[in-house]
Structures are given as structure tokens and as C-alpha cells.
Amino acid sequence: MSEVSAPTAVSTPAESGSPAPATTDSLSTSGHSPVANAGSASSGSSEGWPEVDWDGWDGEVNSLPEQYHTSATAIQSRADSNYQERHSNLDNLRAMYSAMLSGEEDPRIGQLTTDLSDLQSRYDTRETEYSGQSDKYSDLEAQLKGYQDNNAQSYVDRFWTDHSELSDNTEQLNKLAEYLIDDGSHGGAWDPYLAVKLMALPEEAAQVAVEAKKNGVEDKYAFQLAEAHAQLTEARSQPTEDQMAVAAKLVEEQKKAKAPRTAAKITNGAVRSSQPQASRAGMKDATSLDEMRTLAARRALTVHGGGRG
């Protein structure tokens, strides 16, 4: 293990009455611990850190007091790292100068060539993977487009099956086409099914849906607003229960006013015969009280009119 440069010795003030710190001459440098004598180890610092003869330290962490092990290990690791980095740089420079002196190729070129080859290999691998993913994406995109086309055609076929009556109605087809224009006057393209329903509503209600769509409302909710508006308008146009009661009473009074009087019922239809030679029914021919009254009224008219009963 490489030795760490010895830092400046830690200076610890001696307590009053304690012996003076040991000098370098009093320590053995043949591998013994660089700690001063036992007395200084126990009283060398108010915090219990013993004094160390850094000049006599052999560079081994284990030969230091335990209190110094953590700090010494970190310092030594740092120093070793710096040493290895510098040693590698020196080796590279030595190889470069040696190649230049002997007319050989700069070794850095070979290293860069190797690095470039590695990068190219990685790039080719990624390119192959990307190409495979791109092909998969293209296949999925084609499948999705085919699925969408099939669904669109199925939707169109189902729509015309459900609304076959529109195919022969040019006026309705032209009106429907206006609802399917993206930039049309109806707020944009409508769902065809909702457009047909909207066409069946009153113009005022349909306009409510158009204005809602222009304000960003979804088709189905815009139609629901129009439908509710139409229902509310129809409900308001219906008579109330009180109005219906008054109307029924008025009709009943009109019926009573048009009803004939009792006497009028008896004489109703009792007119003078224009055929005197025809046989007339007599009272004995009556089969009911009402018929007898009718015959009596008819005979009275005949007598008063100058004829015979």
C-alpha cells in the first residue's frame, strides 16, 4: 500500500501538571505505534484524542489509534484515487511519447478507434431494434385504418337501412346535408342520427340546439336541450284543467240551447201530406205512446190546414 504524506502533527495543549509531550527521539520508528507514551495517550487532549507522532507513522491505518481510523481511511482512499489517476495519465503520456520517438502510431488513435467502433455497434443495434418497432407500428396502423374503414362503412349502411324513407325525399336529403357540413350554418357537422331527429323538431327548438352546438356543447346534449324546449313549448300550448272545465261547461250550455222543446219534438215531422190519395195510418195502428202523439199532431195539422183528419 502506498504511504500517505504525513500531515502536520496535531497539536494538543497539555493539561496543567502533565508531563511534556514526547519528542521524536524518544519514539521507536521500527514499526511500533506512533502513539506517545501511555500518560500522554490518556491526557493528551481534553476530548480523549491521543497525540500521534506523524513523522514516525508507517502509513498503515491499523497502526493509528482507533479514533483516527475513519478519518485516515477516507484520506487514504482519496489519495489512492488521485494516485491511480495520475499514474494512468503518466502511462498514457509515456506510451504516446514512446510511439512518437519510434515513429509508431499514436496509441490514443487506436483507443479512439476502438471507442468509435463500440459506439457504432451500439448504434447499429439500436437502429435494428427501432426498425423492427417501426415495422410493428406500421402494421398496427394499417390494421387500425382497416378497422376504422369497416366501421365507417357499417355505420353508413346501418344509417340508410334505418332511414330508408329519406332516400326518395330530395327535400329532406338536402336539409340533412346542411347538418353534415363541417363549416355549415348549423354549428358544424352533426351526428347523422341526431340530425334526423333534429329535423323533426319545430324550427324554434332546432335553433336552440344549433346555438348550443356553436357554443361548444356536445351533439347529444344540444339535442336534449332542443327536445326539452319543444316539450315545454307544447306543454304551455295545452289548456289548463280550469280552462278545460270552462270549455266543457260552455259546450254543455250550447247543447242545451240547441235542444228542441218538448212540443217541438211532438210536432216535429208532422206536415201536411202532399199525396191525399195515399192511405194514412190511424190511431189504431200506433204501437207506442210516442207514435200515437205523432199521429195526433199530424192529424191536428191536417185539420187546421183545411184537410181531413
Could you please describe the fold and organization of this structure?
The protein is mostly helical and 309 residues long. The protein folds into three domains: 1-103, no CATH class; 105-162; 167-237, no CATH class. The protein is built from ten helices and no strands. The chain has helices at residues 38-43, 69-102, 107-162, 170-179, 192-199, 203-214, 219-237, 241-258, 262-267, 289-304. Helix 4 (170-179) crosses helix 5. Residues 1-33 and 35-46 have low confidence and may be disordered.
Structure characteristics:
mainly alpha, 10 helices, 60% helix, elongated, 3 domains, 309 residues
Shape verdict? elongated
Stretches where pLDDT falls below 50 for ≥5 residues?
A: 1-33, 35-46
Portion of residues within helices: 55-70%
Q: In percent terms, what proportion of residues is strand?
A: under 5%
- Ends: how far apart? 164 Å
Q: Summarize model confidence as the mean pLDDT.
A: 74
From N to C, what is the helix and strand string? HHHHHHHHHH
Q: Please outline the major beta sheet.
A: none
Derived from helix and strand composition plus strand pairing, the structural class reads mainly alpha
DSSP summary: helix tally: 10
> Radius of gyration in whole Å, from Cα?
61 Å
E-strand count: 0
Q: What count of domains describes the coordinates?
A: 3
